[in-house]
Design goal:
The protein is built from seven helices and eight strands, in the order E-H-E-H-E-E-H-H-E-H-E-E-H-E-H. The protein is of the alpha/beta class and 181 residues long. The chain has two domains: 143 residues, Rossmann fold (3-Layer(aba) Sandwich), CATH 3.40.50; 34 residues, no CATH class.
């Protein structure tokens, strides 16, 4: 049985939902896991974990600063442990090259190269946005050719089957002997 730490950053909450789903899957496979919102948990990686999955959403082309700071501070430990990155963005819904570019920038900024990377689409949560953000997000969606511009409802793009495959692949990788990772 492995013990896995999942620190994350989220703005509107979709990344937190993805993290909770990953945690449930890990538990269903007989492992222990702890999730931690880095806004409140601080930037120290606790000891006693067998693996780490860092999750962050992308806004205005960048992952949250507090997640970047966490990775920079704990880079040595993240490189020692089997670690993965979950990157959540609207770009992952239709522009995989752009989503991969966000990860490349994150890797360049932090110096960390995770063993596994999951790119997942987030959500347009119009009903949660304030007036200005709602109309800005609508304009961005329209400019990208999306028909999802009805601001009276939300649009969730996360492919939960993909999140499940990523989690199961990570657990299989974690179970391999260190010499095979």
């Amino acid at each position: 049985m492995a013990k896995i730490y999942i620190p994350y950053g989220t703005v509107e909450g979709q990344t937190a939902q993805i993290v909770e789903y990953i945690a449930e899957l890990i538990r269903s496979h007989g492992h222990q896991t702890e999730t931690a919102d880095l806004k409140h948990a601080g930037d120290t990686l606790p000891t006693g974990y067998d693996g780490v999955i860092v999750a962050a959403s992308v806004h205005v082309g960048k992952h949250e600063g507090h997640v970047t700071d966490f990775v920079k501070k704990n880079r040595g430990e993240l490189e020692r442990l089997p670690s993965a990155l979950v990157s959540v963005s609207l770009a992952a819904h239709g522009d995989e090259a752009e989503a991969e570019g966000y990860v490349q920038k994150f890797e360049a900024d932090t110096g960390w190269r995770p063993g596994h990377v999951g790119l997942f689409a987030g959500a347009l949560l119009y009903t949660h946005y304030g007036f200005i953000k709602k109309h800005l997000m609508k304009k961005i969606a329209k400019d990208k050719g999306s028909l999802d511009t009805d601001t009276t409802r939300d649009y969730v793009y996360t492919e939960w089957d993909g999140v499940q495959r990523f989690t199961e692949d990570y657990l299989a990788w974690l179970a391999k002997p260190a010499s095979q990772k």
